[in-house]
């Protein structure tokens, strides 16, 4: 390796390592802050917290790498330009392309490292961390309760509430509870305007205090028929305060590192995604075909076919309803209307299911293409940061930091925007995953060309020259006419 290459690599690696670890620390702290309430004071050991932080570090590393490359490339090239080292190299006959060649190879190497992280380390860390989150919530069941939907984590109970609030997040609004302890379905329903969760560390019970509510229970005997159930008595009452003790001892024995979820899209490598996607697409196509068949069967489309002219009864009116009397017309219209409404209601009910199935499939499809697209972010952002640094000719942490943040926010926003559009089927998965690359690549090419030709970021003269020439031509023509 030549002395120039060693010097350029050293100039790049020192700010790269510094910025990479700083950014990595910030991203880890941000992720920790989001789950801090679920970890602090919940009886979680220090070992588990450290493992959680380690998995978080592995997850955010593929995000920190491209930011570090972008910022350090702007700082390095900006510093070399600011200190006239590029000018000295050019005067010695060394071109810009030759000077940055070792950093280009390093950026390609870092893109490869990023791909390996995304394909092997990232899925492993996601699997470990997500299962750990689920197990921590089960360790503290109050944490697992989510507003707006029925929570089924607690044994023998299904709980739904509108809002969770309070300093300890243990106060509930508009609570509805299905008590399933009798093993006879949801025949016991409790509603309340307010609720409070009380649980002590190490206790086998979680206490739920309900206030200002209503109690209803339908008494059903085993083996009773449907008609007999309708005649069976029910009891109901209003209450000011009602206490429920829920046995949560089954949660205390759970291993916090137990792996129950292993097939989510972000837990699979590219090879596993490639094997999973064909089966998922086949199941989705079979579901679509099944729904289409049910639709056609529901509206009796198979009975609509053309008769030969010789079999058509000439006495029948072209308007079908004219062939029936008034009462029969009413029956036909009522039957048709009810069948149409039933079909529309069925389609409306299945619309959300179909949308969720498609969205679930899209997540796997997008993840497959995004792994490759995002791994190239190191190389792409280098070809934006390096020429930009040589153009602005400013090193240090001031202007380069601002430019790096602005560029990465634009890249990350376009990547997220493309993925969201593809998730909703507004774009194909491959276009959604590569959208950020398509948008940022012209900027990288433009900056690289301008830096190679030693042009500024914006050449104002190129815009003003045509206007200046136009004005000169007008005045020259006026002078000729006056003469």
Automatic annotation (TrEMBL):
<feature type="transmembrane region" description="Helical">
    <location>
        <begin position="53"/>
        <end position="78"/>
    </location>
</feature>
<protein>
    <submittedName>
        <fullName>Lipopolysaccharide export system permease protein</fullName>
    </submittedName>
</protein>
<dbReference type="InterPro" id="IPR005495">
    <property type="entry name" value="LptG/LptF_permease"/>
</dbReference>
<dbReference type="GO" id="GO:0015920">
    <property type="term" value="P:lipopolysaccharide transport"/>
</dbReference>
<feature type="transmembrane region" description="Helical">
    <location>
        <begin position="12"/>
        <end position="33"/>
    </location>
</feature>
<dbReference type="Pfam" id="PF03739">
    <property type="entry name" value="LptF_LptG"/>
</dbReference>
<feature type="transmembrane region" description="Helical">
    <location>
        <begin position="426"/>
        <end position="449"/>
    </location>
</feature>
<keyword id="KW-1133">Transmembrane helix</keyword>
<keyword id="KW-1003">Cell membrane</keyword>
<keyword id="KW-0472">Membrane</keyword>
<keyword id="KW-0812">Transmembrane</keyword>
<feature type="transmembrane region" description="Helical">
    <location>
        <begin position="395"/>
        <end position="414"/>
    </location>
</feature>
<feature type="transmembrane region" description="Helical">
    <location>
        <begin position="368"/>
        <end position="388"/>
    </location>
</feature>
<dbReference type="GO" id="GO:0043190">
    <property type="term" value="C:ATP-binding cassette (ABC) transporter complex"/>
</dbReference>
<feature type="transmembrane region" description="Helical">
    <location>
        <begin position="99"/>
        <end position="122"/>
    </location>
</feature>
